[in-house]
Amino acid sequence: MEKIHENMTSAYQQKIRAELKELKAQMMKMQAKAEQSGADVRLKYQKRAQEMNARVKEINDQLEKVSNSAEGAWEEIRGGVDRSLSELKKSLDQAGQEMKQ
After folding, report:
1. For position 29, what pLDDT does the model report?
2. CA 77 to CA 4: how far, in whole Å?
3. Given this model, what pLDDT does residue 95 score?
4. Which of 80, 76, 94 is nearest to 26 (CA)?
5. Hey, which of 9, 46, 51, 80 has its CA 20 to 30 A from 73?
């Protein structure tokens, strides 16, 4: 049973890390676009970027907990990672919308 848990957590971490990599690439594109825009757009993006970077750190911290978690605790930690990832995506979408305005 321990090996199954280890395989599940490893696969989950790989999936989340791949998603984070993609989201970070989108963030970098937005940042480049914001830097070429007016001051108001840059300020809006900087605020969102702080939020998004905090979420990325939070997700990475939670992923570390996943690898060290017992079988029962991993579901709870996974729920937190999923929520944080969802919030990161939401912030990224909002940043994109604000930059279009």
Report:
1. 92
2. 17
3. 86
4. 94
5. 51
